[in-house]
């Protein structure tokens, strides 16, 4: 399945400053691996040492937070849009 991935500015150093990348993947885990193949080094910024998405990054599939879906196993369909959004904190 071809999906569109919206890359946040801090991670665009891995994508040759591209804000949008198209990937072939059937779920979020495959998407992360596909991104790593296309943009070497990005996976370390997306995943912890166990290979799970980092807690300070939010992944959305068509505006739905994957934490409220099936997490990294969230299924993707052709034409889906995945947004990677760094968490914002402050005081």
UniProtKB/TrEMBL annotation:
**Which InterPro entries does this UniProt record tie to the protein?**
Beta-grasp_dom_sf, Mopterin_synth/thiamin_S_b, Sulfur_Carrier/Prot_Modifier, ThiS/MoaD-like
**Which domain of life does the UniProt lineage start with?**
Bacteria
Q: Which Pfam families match?
A: ThiS
Query: Per its UniProt record, what PANTHER family does this chain match?
Result: SULFUR CARRIER PROTEIN CYSO, SULFUR CARRIER PROTEIN SLR0821-RELATED
Name assigned to this protein: Uncharacterized protein
Organism of derivation: Planktothrix tepida PCC 9214
């Amino acid at each position: 399945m071809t999906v569109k991935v919206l890359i946040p500015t801090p991670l665009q150093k891995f994508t040759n400053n591209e804000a949008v990348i198209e990937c072939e993947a059937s779920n979020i885990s495959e998407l992360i691996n596909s991104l790593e193949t296309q943009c070497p080094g990005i996976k370390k910024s997306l995943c912890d040492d166990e290979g799970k998405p980092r807690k300070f990054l939010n992944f959305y599939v068509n505006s739905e937070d994957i934490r409220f879906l099936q997490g990294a196993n969230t299924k993707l369909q052709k034409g889906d849009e995945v947004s990677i959004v760094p968490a914002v904190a402050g005081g």
